[in-house]
Amino acid sequence: MVDGWSASMGVRRAAPLILILAATVGVLVGCRDRAGMTPAPTTVTVAKPVRQIVTDFLEFTGNTAATDSVSLVARVEGYLEKVHFTDGSPVKKGDLLFTIQQDQYKAQLQQAEAQVAAQKAALRHAETELARYTALVKEDAATQTEVDHWTYERDAAAAAILSAEAQVELAKLNLSYTTVKAPFDGRIGRHLVDPGNVVGAMGQQTVLAQIDQIDPLYVYFTINERELLHVIERMKQASAPPLSERAIPVYFGLSTEDGYPHEGRLDFASIGVAPTTGTLQLRGIFSNPDRIVLPGLFVRVRVPKPERRDALLVRGDAVSFDQQGAYLLTVNDQNVVERTGVKTGSQVGEMLVIEEGLKPDDLVIVEGILQAIPGRKVNPQPESTSPPSVTPLPASG
C-alpha cells in the first residue's frame, strides 16, 4: 500500500512538468510556423521610359542690361528752374523732364532775328543804290568806282543775311536745349541736380539724370572656346546655316524663378574670342513689357544646341540619388527590384532625360519607391494613367 501511494504521488508530481514541456513545444512549433510564412510582395507601379526627340541645351550665367542707356546732361548754361518727373518713374519719348532758365536764350533769339531784319534792309538799300549808280554811269553822271562800291555792299549784305539766319538757328537750338526731354520710352532714375543750381557752367556738361530703356532688355553671356568649337563642329555636321542667318531662341530665368520662363532670341555675337579669357561674348534680346526685370541682374541662360536627338525620358520623381550618384529602381523579369545606375540629362517639363544606364523596355518603378527594396520581389502593376505631359522642346533653327 505504501508502494501504491508513492507511485501515485510520483505521477502527480510529473504531470505539471509534462504540461510545461507540451506548452513549450507548442510555442516553438507555432513560432516556427509563423517564421516560415512568406510575406506578400509589395505592390508597386511601373512604367517604361518615354522615347522622344529632344534638343540639348547649353547653360550659362549672364547679366541683364538696358538696350539703351543715356545720361541726360545740361547742354547750355543757366539756372535749373524745374524738375518735371518723379524719381524712378516710367517716361515716354518726348516727355518734358527738366527746364533750364530760358529768358536769356529767348532774348538771344530775338536779337538774332533782329539782325536778320537789319541785314535784309541793308541788302535792299544796297540793291537800290547799285541800280541808281549803274544808270548814272551810263549818263556819265557817276563813276565806275561808285558802282563797284555798291556792288560790294549788296554782296556783303547778302552774306550778312546768311550769317544772321545761322545765328537765329543757333539761338533756337540753344533755346531748345533749355528743355530736356526723354529721348525714348524708358525708366528714369533720380534727379542729380536740384532746382536753383547753375548747370552747364564753364562749358561743362552737368549730368541731370539717367534714363534706361528696359523693354526690350539685353542679356549678355559668354561661351568658352571648347563649347564654341563643339557648336561649330556640330553645325558643320548638320549643314546648318551660319548664326547670322538663323533665329536662335534663348531662354533665361532669375534666381527666384523655376526653370527658364523668359524667351528671347540671340541678336549679337562678338566678332572674335577674347584672348585673355578665351570666351566669346553673346547677347540675347528679350521682351520685358512689365519692366519687372531690371538691368544688372545675374540670370541663368539656356541656349539650344544645333542638333536634335532621340532620347529616353522618365518621371523626374522616379530618379533618386545616393553616394554612387543617380539611380532608378527597376523590376526585372523575375519581379525582383534592382538598383539601376543612370546618367541624367536635361529636364523636359516633369520628365528627365536619361543619358546612360536605361533601356527602352526597362520597367521603372514610379510609385511605391519607398517600399521597394533592391533584391526583393514586388508585385509590379502598370501605370494606369498616362505619364506626365512632355512639353516639346523648341527647334534649334
Q: Indicate the structural class.
A: alpha+beta
Q: Report how far the terminal alpha carbons are from each other.
A: 116 Å
Mean pLDDT over all positions: 84
Uncertain ranges: 1-12, 14-35, 392-397
Q: Work out the helix count.
A: 4
SSE arrangement:
Elements: H1 2-35, E1 42-47, E2 50-74, E3 78-83, E4 90-91, E5 96-100, H2 103-138, H3 144-176, E6 179-181, E7 186-188, E8 198-199, E9 206-224, H4 225-237, E10 249-253, E11 262-269, E12 279-286, E13 298-315, E14 320-322, E15 325-331, E16 337-341, E17 343-348, E18 351-356, E19 363-367, E20 378-382
Helix pairs in contact: 2-3
Précis, in short:
With 397 residues, the protein is of the alpha+beta class.
Structure characterization notes:
This protein has four helices and 20 strands. It has 397 residues and is an alpha+beta fold. The strands form three sheets. Strands 1, 14, 15, 16, 19 and 20 form a six-stranded mixed β-sheet that branches. The protein has a six-stranded antiparallel barrel with strand order 2-9-12-11-10-13. A hairpin with a 2-residue loop joins strand 14 (320-322) and strand 15 (325-331). The N and C termini lie far apart (116 Å). The model is unreliable at 1-12, 14-35 and 392-397 (pLDDT under 50).
